[in-house]
Amino acid sequence: MFNGAEIREIRKQKQLTLQTLAVKTGLSTSLLSQIERGLVDPTVGTFWKICNALDVPINHFFRKSVDEDPVIRRDQHKVIHLPDSHVKYHVLTPLQQGKIEFLLVEIEPGETLEPELVSHSGEECGYILQGELKVLLDDREYHLYEGDSLGFVSTKPHRFINPSRNISISIWARAT
Questions:
Q1: Which of 24-33, 43-52, 109-118, 145-154 has the weakest average pLDDT?
Q2: How far apart are CA 25 and CA 37, in angstroms?
Q3: Which of 30, 49, 139, 149 has the fewest CB atoms within 10 Å, i.e. the most exposed one?
Q4: How would CATH label the architecture of 4-61?
Q5: Residues 137, 7: Cα–Cα separation, whole Å
Q6: SS3 of 60, please?
Q7: pLDDT digits (tens, 9 = 90+) for 63-72
């Protein structure tokens, strides 16, 4: 599902060394090397850090070819589900070269293994379709329920948590 060699290719295209990428992400060169060689799958937070440092949207790694139909049928969504993660990202964006990322996010009940907040360029807006979602945003906490929405500048550190016993489903748009 995940191809670390593509990270290496993008890193080299951008003329970045492993050491430079390590500094930009705050990750070790050893971990980045293992991810690039496919020996280790990144956590969601690590994946976001790499995407941010390489200045590529998360859906870049799950793109359709340019010649394909611009419609994504419900059974054709690309799903990003990293190992040991409570989160599934369904890529809903048919225009892969655009400036908007459109995701359906499913979060299983419980804490994620990665407690740190993430930040990246752009802004995002989300709408809760089902369940609850706790959003840690900078130094504030927002508890959202079905029908609630939230928007913020993505450079503010943030994290999503499902505090309930049921699955949380939300739709998020991120503009770069």
A1: 109-118
A2: 18
A3: 139
A4: Orthogonal Bundle (1.10)
A5: 28
A6: helix
A7: 555 555 677 7
Q: Which residues of 45-80 are buried (b: 16+ CB within 10 A; e: fewer)?
A: bbbbbbbbbbebbbbebbebeeeeeeebeeeebbeb
CATH of 68-175, one of 3.40.570.10, 3.40.50.360, 3.30.379.10, 2.60.120.10: 2.60.120.10
Q: Where exactly are the structural domains of the chain?
A: 4-61, 68-175
Who contacts 65 (Cβ-Cβ below 8 Å, separation ≥6)? none
The model's pTM is 0.67
Q: Which residues contact 127 (CB under 8 A, 6 or more apart)?
A: 147, 148, 149, 170, 171, 172
Residue among 90, 116, 83 at smallest CA distance from 104 = 90
